[in-house]
Amino acid sequence: MSSYGGIDLGGTKIQTVIVDDEHNVLGSARRPTPTTGGPADVACEMAAALCEAAKAAELAVTALAGIGVGSPGTIEAGNVSSARNLPGWEGTFPLAAALETALGVGGMPILVGNDVQVATDAEFKLGSGRPYGTLLGVFWGTGVGAGLILDGKPWTGRGGAGEVGHMVIEIDGARCTCGRRGCVEAYAGRAAMETHARELHEQKGHKTDLFKLMKDHDRTRLTSGIWARALRDEDKLATHIIDRAVGALGAGIASAVNLLDVESVIVGGGLGIRLGDPYAKRISEAMRPHLFADNRPPDVQVAALGDLGGAIGASLLVETGVARTAAAS
Predict the structure, then answer these.
(1) What pLDDT is attached to residue 181?
(2) pLDDT above 50: residue 323
(3) Which of 179, 208, 271, 318 has the fewest C-beta atoms lying within 10 Å of its C-beta?
(4) According to CATH, where is 3.30.420.40 located in the chain?
């Protein structure tokens, strides 16, 4: 029986798993994504997290049949570009090669895919997407990304498909982390939401406990858990910003559905999973005014694989690649 490693690189966390041939999780580990440094520092932390997961599974990393990685940004042959929500990641970085060196696994298959696409693939094969032939996976976290399954197959376009977070919902609207204006992510990405909260709190005097909660829980950023606690406490500023995000997600996702007419929308990511079914329903309701075929809206549900979905999806990436290699030999 073979075992595979999976690494999900996110804006705030690095999640790793070791899985077997039947997709059972044998071990897992999580580390915070570095907030300073650059791609090399991130790669070292990814390697350390995978080693922790392998130790939990009582396996050596060198015993794995391969390692899969889900990363933000544009992916090409193990290189990652434009991962703007990661520290110092402005250009192109050879992530697969860096991990091979850091882990000491020369010659082992290390395959890199877009983080939201591999998470969507996992939901399609193992999670909420199993009943459907077409679906849109929307991952609401530090940014807003999406993966596509069309006619039962992943669709990545020329490498940049699924950028729902950068669909424009307001001409000359809020400034996005990508540098453009009016993107969904400018309203719904957790990084942009934190920037907006700071502006309203520090410059305009709006009251909020968001930053007190952040300090009390020893966080350096407004994580999904901090937003959830603030909502639970009925913090008015947090509620306003989340409502704004839901409206933006509704408009952007509906526009994607109008183009593609998918059967299902699966909501994942740190915020999507943390806020759960009530907010999936709210996003569905926010979509309706913008849907052209409003008599048959897509099913909207939360990702079934939870926080491990991205790492499991990454392991599927390498599992499929190893199977293809074996079949061709």
Answers:
(1) 97
(2) no
(3) 179
(4) 3-118+308-328, 131-304
